[in-house]
Amino acid sequence: MIHVTPALKDLLENCLSWEFDIFRLEDLTRKRPLQHLGMAIFTHFDVANTLNCDEKTIFNWLTVIEANYHAENAYHNSTHAADVMQAAANYLEKERMKSLMDPLDEATSLIAACAHDVDHPGKSSAFLSNSDNPLAILYNDVTVLESHHAALTFKLTLGDERVNIFKNLDRESYKVARTNVIDMILATEMTKHFEHLAKFVNVFCTKSSGSETEGECPDYVPLSLPENVTLVKRMMIKCADVSNPARPLRICVEWARRITEEYFHQTDEEKARGLPVVMPMFDRHTCSVPKSQIGFVDYIINDMFEAWNAFIDMPELLTYMRQNYIRWKELDEQGHTTLSDIQKLQSTMFMAPTFPVSKGGTMKGD
């Protein structure tokens, strides 16, 4: 069904490591990482048994979903999808998540992660709306890309019995699975980031100013309430979707290079077509890559990962995030700001092994 070389087999044996090298997987699979990593992780979580379908159907589904990602996108391609699924799998292995998620929750979380950006055009929803793209017309300029990703996931899945991983579920289980997948994909829309984070923090994380336990998540919250499980699943896929700043340095920098390149292409096209420039900071002539990453961590990542770590107890997230942040600050101060600068550095300083992270290691009080 799927050919696995010895090198690929060795790599996939560590598929649940937070230090997993997704870019080596991309190379070894000739840009088909989702198919291979998906089979390994779906097997680990026994997704076939949960969905009552055979592995061939799962393989077919992964193949079709991957084929509908665009390899020419610098960032939003199937390697990103595989990376998000791998992060979600990491989170699902934590005891807090195991106590909360039933097998169908686990399976649908992995499915949503795989498909959450399917058929991404490499342009933002705002670009699609500004350019009167047919998808923006179809979805009335509201949650354009995420609506498309969710709808296409089910169109592809239900359109062929050989691909339909849900075909053997009873009606009620399918309804739950469909609701889960759609809700998680829609939760990746960044315009609602602060709303999702605030709801999660308000339910799960205390904020006793000056307390030793500030930011910790209490155990007495009734986790099993359906609405609370939904909040956790949304936060999980969000933290998987933007885990790049909390990965080992070499991985973090390559993702930063890729997203920057993709955003540059959008700005180039907006200028060429006389459209509003959605992200003026991503102009290839003026952009500081370190500053863009520092701002992303300050504005989006830091508070979300502080809350997520308090909930699932995964301190390596904060360790890598803070180490990478310090390195971006250093690069900014040293004047290594352009995409060309970063690419040159990637072949030298970033090829060194990343900092080892102990199970309980964190960096306090930067």
UniProtKB/TrEMBL annotation:
Lineage start: Eukaryota, Metazoa, Ecdysozoa, Arthropoda, Hexapoda
Residues annotated for AMP binding in this entry: H76, N77, S78, T79, H80, D117, D241, Q293
Keywords, alphabetical: cAMP, Hydrolase, Metal-binding
SUPFAM superfamilies: HD-domain/PDEase-like (SSF109604)
Cofactor or coenzyme needed: a divalent metal cation
Species: Acanthoscelides obtectus
GO MF, one annotated term: metal ion binding
Enzyme class, spelled out: hydrolase
GO biological process: signal transduction
Residues that hold Zn(2+) 2 according to the record: D117
Binding sites annotated in the UniProt record for Zn(2+) 1: H80, H116, D117, D241
EC number in record: 3.1.4.53
Metabolic or biological pathway, per its Swiss-Prot or TrEMBL entry: Purine metabolism; 3',5'-cyclic AMP degradation; AMP from 3',5'-cyclic AMP: step 1/1
Family: Belongs to the cyclic nucleotide phosphodiesterase family. PDE8 subfamily.
Any Pfam family: PDEase_I
Record-linked PANTHER family: CYCLIC NUCLEOTIDE PHOSPHODIESTERASE
All residue ranges annotated as the PDEase domain in the record: 1-335
UniProt superkingdom: Eukaryota
Protein name: 3',5'-cyclic-AMP phosphodiesterase
Residues annotated as catalytic: H76 (proton donor)
InterPro entries tied to this protein: HD/PDEase_dom, PDEase, PDEase_catalytic_dom, PDEase_catalytic_dom_sf
